[in-house]
Amino acid sequence: MSTTIHSILKQYWGYDKFRPLQEDIIQSVLQGKDTLALMPTGGGKTICFQVPAMVNEGICIVISPLIALMKDQIENLRSKGIEAIAIYSGMNYREVDIALDNCIFGKIKFLYIAPERFYSDLVRERIKYMKVNLFAIDEAHCISQWGYDFRPSYLQLADLREAHPNIPILALTASATPRVVEDMQKRLNFRQKNVFSKSFARPNLGYMALNEENKMNRMLRIVKKIGGSGVVYVRNRRETQEVARFLLNHGVPSDFYHAGLTMKERESKQNAWTSNKTRVIVATNAFGMGIDKPDVRFVIHIDIPDSLEAYYQEAGRAGRDGKRAFPVLLYQQEDRDKLWKNFQDSFPSVQLIQQTYHYLANHYQIAYGAGKNITVDFDLVEFVKKYKLEVVPTMSALKFLERDGWLSLSEAVFIPSRFKFEIDFQDLYKFQVQAAKYDPLIKAILRTYGGVFDFYVPINEFEFAKKLGVPYETIVQMLDGLEKQQVGSYLKSTDKPQLTFLQPRVDYKNLFIDAEFIRERKDVKEEQIKAIYHFLDTKECRSNAILAYFGERNTKPCGECDLCLKRKHVEGIDAKIEQEIRVLLLEKPMSLHELIDALTVGDDAKKLSVLRKLIDEGKVSLLTDNYHWKAN
User: Fold this and answer.
1) Are both 169 and 54 inside the same structural domain?
2) DSSP-based three-state secondary structure for 227
């Protein structure tokens, strides 16, 4: 078996050996054991499910909440000649139906599913007929209400065991407290506890948390002093552009990145940064997932993250090459106050949650008793403006509605247009003869795409407009025409989150909301906020504060963080003052005034502090108003 997994690693990924823990996790999975892999960012989690899936016959089902990351992994697998597909919000019933059939009857090796899609009876039923060899659950901390990014849609995943009771589950996450580690295994119905955990320590990282009034200028000094490539994290899209412009104006090659960009823009900006054409990328937390750039020398946070878990993951994108790197968090008292207010706003009243549901149903004109399984594009900004709501409480209300099974909400991601012919080749030829105006477009589609009679293929309307020398609007009209005449199915692109109503509409006054759960969740979130405050306020060691939070105790100071470096500096001054006092007093006894004036290092307070310490230690004595060095 060992030879097999090593040959697969070499054949498909080009590596001669596994990283620490990878082989142990893979062997555990191949032995049929439920396994929890706790590996910090950059530890190589995907290899842990992709290699064993390639060893065994059958399909690996991967649950991931990050559609953009799913797409990246699928493209990566396909580039290696491995068949992989995804099912996520925004795909219609027919698309999902075809994709699932290919998993049962085709050569698909990896099926990626967004967790909210698991609510679908179609998906659950078809999984029963697949020859599954492994269930891999990425970002597994999302299943725990104690986790920092709890997602209600994950709670359904324990039902995977019902479909294939003997197939192992591999849960993967980059960060989890001991309580979350226990909860993940319990909620996923692990047959036995089985955890592989890598230390959260990153010895090459010098964590810094600086209370700074002028954050922009401090950021600029850090970027110029450290050099190399880096990421600056900010809270919103507007800030990404403002901070990137500030850096550009000061001679630092920079760009901005956020979820509102088109897929092409994101890829272009990301590639420029990974190839070091852009030195600094200023981004929201939408940036970084799945990006393995080893030479990141700094990660700067201009705002305080919501939790220590989130900070650890984002900061951990620095120094993956093992060389020294610096995660720096810049903050002010105002940021701390804002974080607390955001926390308070994140737990709306039951009445507000019910009211939000009522507005949603009205917004999409859903009748009472109707609406089950309807999926719509959801524009949060438009919705809150229309009903005069606040953004944070509304988003939180949606999450609690999701948790109680009323709706599901996917992340915002660009989904390209898709097309599929719904008639066979012979009938299509007849249609081309009868409707000549469609002939050039049909020929262009057939020349460009294979499998368009069997699958939905992603299409680019602009490319067809260019090829055929007609306006973009004409191509869209023609595609719409093919759908109206039932020749093909045309699904237009979207870059908005997808909202699905999971139940028929009810009167909002009768809407059940679990108030007890909301109170419990608020307590969890308060603990997380206090943990990030503790990280900011500690006087000991930043790294140790993180390690203690994740359950690693009795660790030595890192020697690299701002607090350790400050302590080293202070200790260095103390040692120099002590050495000077020793030399001066061995030459002759001196009065306090003479001794303080003669010392060349430190201020008066520091000199007196060291002198008191030497007296307490018995190295210096005071006799008739003069200080003496006591020889051993």
Assistant:
1) yes
2) coil
Shared-domain flag, residues 45 and 193: yes
Residue 163 lies in a domain: yes
Rounded distance between C-alpha atoms, residue 309 and residue 315, angstroms? 10
DSSP readout, 153-222? GGGGGGGHHHH-TTS-EEEEES---HHHHHHHHHHTT-SS--EEE-----TTB--EEEE-S-HHHHHHHH
Percent of the chain that is helix, strand, coil (3-state, to 5): 50, 15, 35
Going by the DSSP 8-state scheme, the letter that residue 451 receives in this structure is: S
What total number of domains does the chain contain? 5
What is the C-alpha to C-alpha distance for residues 336 and 356, in angstroms, rounded to an integer?
A: 28
Domain finish residue from 197, 222, 246: 197
Long-range contacts of 525-534 (CB under 8 A, 24+ apart): 525/343, 525/346, 525/347, 526/343, 528/148, 528/306, 528/307, 528/308, 528/309, 529/306, 529/307, 529/339, 529/340, 529/343, 531/307, 531/308, 532/304, 532/305, 532/306, 532/307, 532/308, 532/311, 532/339, 533/336
Residues 99, 138 share a domain? yes
- The Cα–Cα gap between 246 and 68 comes to 28
How many C-beta neighbours within 10 Å does residue 611 have? 21
Closest CA to 624 of 593, 595, 596, 589: 589
* Closest by CA position to 38, among listed 145, 164, 181: 181
Which amino acid type is present at position 93?
Y
DSSP state at residue 54 = H
**Torsion angle defined by CA atoms of residues 416, 417, 423 and 427, in that order, rounded to the nearest 10 degrees:** -120
Q: Which residues of the chain have pLDDT under 50?
A: 1
Token pair 């054991």: residue: 33
- Residue 472 domain-assigned (yes or no): yes
Beta bridge partner(s), residue 296: 229
pLDDT value of position 414: 65
* Exposure string over 343-370, b if 16+ CB within 10 A, otherwise e: beebbbeeebbbbbbbbbbebbebeeee
Is the distance from CB of 562 to CB of 606 less than 8 angstroms? no
SS (HEC) of 267-301: HHHHHHHHCCCCCEEEECCCCCCCCCCCCEEEEEE
DSSP 231-249: EEE-SSHHHHHHHHHHHHH
Which residue segment(s) compose the domain that 461 sits in? Answer: 417-491
Residues near 560 by beta carbon (within 8 Å), at least 6 away in sequence: 203, 204, 205, 206, 207, 324, 543
* CATH code: domain of residue 172: 3.40.50.300
The Cα–Cα gap between 81 and 84 comes to 9
- 253, β-bridge pairs: none
CA dihedral 312, 316, 322, 328 (to 10 degrees): -80
